[in-house]
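=== RUN LOG ===
request id: a7f3
mode: sequence -> structure
chains: 1
length: 233
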Amino acid sequence: MPSWRLKDLNRSRAPRFSVVGEYAERTDFVRHLALLRDETDLQFADRVEVWQTSPPIVAGTETMIAAGTEQNYCLAHAVGHLEDMSADEAAGIETVLAEIDTQTPLWHGPRKFLLHYVVHPPVKWIVDPVTGTKRYRKFSCVGFVLECYEKGAGIQLLDVDHENFPYVDEAVLTDAYGISVNRENMRERLGIEDAPPWQIALPGYVLHALARPAPEVRARPYLPTGLEEAHFR
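=== RESULT ===
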């Protein structure tokens, strides 16, 4: 079973670079995603070491030290993985993580960490205005996972540009990202522009993408069927 909700009493073995989902409080709405750092036995609500954009970005030694100890973990409520990930694909993810780790500016403080973060699009390159050189990437938690899988392993998990990608409104964004998205200036900082609703990649979609058989995951990116897939049961 490539994606599953963890159980309170039973431990499940999850391989390295599994996608870990953290629920919002007292619900199965997935509010955060991360990559499991090492192969681990997981139980519901375990605090596990991950690579992630929470913010800040934590992708390797440099960003991990800058972020501080508390930013190296998330709670594991659900997990998904590619059953047949090869050693070369895992090595590719390692390479992308190393690139992100060395490229990311090491800002400090909660407000500065928002400079690592964007919600829409889920991945955004910051380009030097003079030379046009790509300097570093900003991510949502979803974008961080998508980028590692696509650029590292050659696997596109979500069809984020599809015209039928689900729309979300302000209430759903509040569930996913906190009450601050009610403020227009904060939404603009996160790339959420224009009037609602918006086609935004939510964390739960990725777990549903990985719930498919591995050949199907490799064959085509997943198009969520609706907002109910922001939940994962």
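=== NOTES ===
The longest strand covers residues 46-53.
The two ends are 13 Å apart (CA to CA).
=== END ===
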